[in-house]
Amino acid sequence: MSELTAKDYRTDQEVRWCPGCGDYAILAAMQSFMPELGIERERSVFISGIGCAARFPYYMNTYGMHSIHGRAPAIATGLATSRPDLSVWVVTGDGDALSIGGNHLIHALRRNVNVKILLFNNKIYGLTKGQYSPTSELGKVTKSTPMGSLDWPFNPLSLAIGAEATFVGRAIDTDKAGMTAVLRAAAAHRGSAFVEIFQNCPIFNDDAWAFVRDDKEGVNRIPLRHGEPITWGPDRSKALRQRADGSIEVCDADDQNVLVHDAEHETPSLAFALSRVTQQRNGGTPVGVFRSIERPVYDDLMAEQLATATAKRGEGDLAALLHSGETWTIS
Amino acid sequence: MAKAKPVEQLSQVIVRFAGDSGDGMQLTGAQFTSETALLGNDISTFPDFPAEIRAPAGSLPGVSGFQVHFADFDILTPGDAPNVLVAMNPAALKTNIKDLPHGGTLIVNSDAFNERNLQKAGYATSPLEDGSLDEYQLHSVPLTTLTIGALKGIEGVTPREAERSKNMFALGLMSWLYGRTIDATVAFLEDKFAKRPEIAAANVKALQAGYAFGETTETFAVTYEVKPAKLQPGTYRNITGNQALSLGLVAASRLSQLPLFLGAYPITPASAILEELAGYKHFGVRTFQAEDEIAAAGAAVGAAFGGSLGVTTSAGPGIVLKAETIGLAIMLELPLVICDIQRAGPSTGMPTKPEQGDLLMVLFGRNGESPVPVVAPRSPSDCFDAAIEACRIALKYRTPVYLLSDAYLANGSEPWLLPGVETLPDISTTFATEPNDGDEFLPYLRDDVTLARPWALPGTPGLEHRIGGLEKADRTGSISYDPDNHDLMTLLRAQKVAGIANDIPELEVDDPDGDARVLVLGWGGTYGPIAAACRRVRQAGGSVAHAHLRHLNPFPRNTGDVLRAYERVLVPEMNLGQLSKLVRAEFLVDAVGYNRVRGLPLRAAEVADAIEALL
Predict the structure, then answer these.
(1) What pTM does this model have?
(2) Which of A38, A298, B16, B44 has the fewest CB atoms within 10 Å of its CB?
(3) What's the gap in Å between the CA of B112 and the closest CA on chain A?
(4) Interface test with A, best of B291, B293, B466, B470 (most A CBs within 10 A)
């Protein structure tokens, strides 16, 4: 295999997102990151549902499918399960994954199918022109909610952790280095990986993530590094610690009980508690890998069952199968 | 040893076992069928059971039945009405007695006719004593008492378990009455209850006791014999439609050299296919029990993208949910087989009862111009061949294909003349391996003859491409909103499916007299009753022709000519006239419908009447 570059992952299709859309940055990061994965281009498959983010596969020069609203995790499950040799990626949005496709998302995660699910969260419906989404904050005023939305939003990471996800991470569209690190870890994870990417929609929900997107000094980003104390701020003076009830609060970095991040902890409690740390509540937003544990992978288990059955019964013989059960002969 | 009783010869018998859902009537019927098949009779069975697993004991809705028709000639249906009814309780008698013609044999478990059960069934007085059954040959047998008596002394069997063996006593009695040997059932019971030998022993004992009771009791003066049928030479096995369909899918996987991937969500009456295929992992079969019907179809499409033979199975309420995914498969032009085991609708309808109500849905129940080929089996064993045919079309034309079975075919059974593997069709397909336009790979460059597009699998270097639900440009497959391109692509998709007419057999007409003026046109699961009806008409001196559609989209290319060659066309269907509507629209033929939606197979006698009315 000759050395590939980002250029090899571009297609001849004109990219049709709005100027300033966060999707451009994610696409560029993905295209420049793929060559370093060491996976042949032809073994990479991007599958999407419907929405702005769902156009992603058209712009990646790999195999791809732009499918139907919310169903990408189901389609990817069929592909990944029948083709363990492929690297299967799902690109989805907050409406696609959490509203119409919520059921497929949680089941793909609990099964631990070997797919990488990237949720571009812009907290709004873009392609249908600006209705509130399942991650929009309560009271969101949009064209479909002139007096404000009434439903409490999902926290995508809490949902994924609750759905037994074995890998959960968060990245920011403008933070190429941070996003690449999370994606690299997701790609290396055998099983399903769920990554929420904060993505800006400049048309219908501009600056929804301004507090972390524009936060070059690290005032609001709380980087999570496995095995390291969780501290942040320009001078790394702030930190997180766990209360007796398991919830998390902000403390000084020199506090005795500063939390040391453990993404590989057996129970999901810590990752869940971290997923509840928000800008609004705590003045900071964790990014990075929240959880990464090993659990049997659905596709591997299925392949094992096939191998076991074949070892036990021999490779299936069609003539013998047809003649199985009670037979009788008429001469 | 009791003195042998006189043996009376019969040409055919229709037995119906009816009892409470918990009485084991399906097992009893299946074993009686098994014994009968081994004797070489032709058989046809029809299980008729409620959707409730255990409706309140003794209640009318809880009655479960199993009808088996066996004969010394080739038969076409499980029979309109039984000659012999075995009723295990008053509710079973009440719901089934109206089907037993006067003079028919009635065997009842008299122990179950207590006040409580009579009340539950709505009997004011016991029909065993009030003379209301005088028109039948009534055999009132205390099955429960006899069974419990016979099982005394078997260690570890509770009185409740002993009582539950009464179905085997009934089976033993019936086996004796019709000269079936019980060896196969003994072996079956020993295998089924291998982990609980005392239960196996109890059931075997009850079976033997029932057989011996027949020999010794004076209740039955004669036994009956039905000689083997003169069937085509070969090896047979008894098979249900769902089993045959499952084996057909496994065979198609082998014949196409593609791994089978089944996406399914449990639903009556299709679940048995998922369960059956789950046992064929050593054939490389992957079964995926999905979170819902949509995911089941989606996963099958995903697997098809990766080069598997993708299949999804369901019934009406689930098929509705899959419509969107099937639309996607039409747009992607990937092979997919969707099995719809039709049941009575709309909505949840009657889950265990057959109907042909989904024809128009599978043809037209999608957005946009979205043609899908449709194949419908005609009998339980034909589900095997029809499954292979559906896979053949899907693979060759890169299209979703519907396989339309129904609850009658799915659960009914008949002897199946086992085909030699070497006689099965070659349905192998090819994948794209290199660019098809200079250095470029065009995913929508079509085959000149089939109009199918190339199937390039992920993992193939140099053929990386994207497909999706948006309209695509001819040849390149790029997104296109060009008006003329959409017009062209719509026509191409339609022409591709229409062209399959050149690749399927012409419609055959069964017109033995050659002078019929009336044609009966049927499709799918009504083959048996219609063919039996035509036989009746002919035996009565009438002339009638019968043609039966296996392909409903496209129709065989001679269909119009066949229909126009007759003065009258009768279309019997288990719906309100869906094929009639198509025939009228497509061929301008003034078809007359015969339509019944009772959740039961059509009755041959009634179809014969409908034919006679047109002669």
Answers:
(1) 0.95
(2) A38
(3) 34
(4) B466
